[in-house]
Amino acid sequence: MTPVTSLDLTGFTEREPGVWTDAAGLVLSVHFFPLVPDLPAPLHDLQLLQAGLAQLTAGAGGGLIEAVPGAVDGVPAVRQLVKVPLGNRPGQAFIGSFTIPRAACSTVVKVQAAEGPMTGMREAVIMAQVGPDAYFRANPYVGGQIGGLPSHAGDDEQWDAQFPEHPLTLVRAALARIAPTVTFDDRFKGLPPFGGPVPAQWAPQAPPAKRGWFRRNGG
């Protein structure tokens, strides 16, 4: 159950409640977490939020491509693009998400896709074009190397047109298309805003997971 009342599901087929796939291999999912959001900082403290998300992603072995403020159906949110290694074979998966936090819960709209058997083509072509010195760079949010997958020019949006079938291109485009179509139940929109992380002993009790407010539209 989530507070999402509608979203554009054009091209997607439902695989299970709250999860859809399309012919290109994208996986779209919607999640509701009846807990204080685990974001490392409030949305208005963008520098601390970005640095914290970068550290968390690197600590899990991935890489934060970008984290920027936004809104979904008028509710403040943070948009993230993340890359993670595939554990069972070479290559990466790319995850794009909007996290919409409230004081004691959050909703996440997520799109993800993985590389196929051929991996690294985008990176190799772009490195050849810009050169190794310009290709690799410090993490944009912490100003250095923090482990996990490295930051590099190959993940920049300017290259998407050159690689229209790449999973990062597909994820970025799908998230940009779908997010503006999401609408929320007014009860979710009216909840107190997220003020930042709080110590566990002071966290408010989680609301019931089943709220009876979820209805999926589109197709």
Structure description:
The protein has about 220 residues and is α+β, with helices and mostly antiparallel strands. It has one domain: 3-Layer(aba) Sandwich (Protein Transport Mog1p, Chain A), CATH 3.40.1000. Helix content is about 20%, strand content about 25%. The protein contains 5 helices and 9 strands; from the N terminus they run E-E-E-E-H-E-E-E-E-H-H-H-E-H. It has helices at about 45-60, 120-130, 130-135, 165-180, 185-190; strands at about 5, 15, 20, 25-35, 65-70, 75-85, 90-100, 105-115, 185. The strands form 2 sheets. The protein has a 7-stranded antiparallel sheet, sandwiched between helices. Strands 1-9 form a two-stranded antiparallel sheet. The longest helix is centred in the N-terminal third of the chain and has 14 residues, at about 45-60.
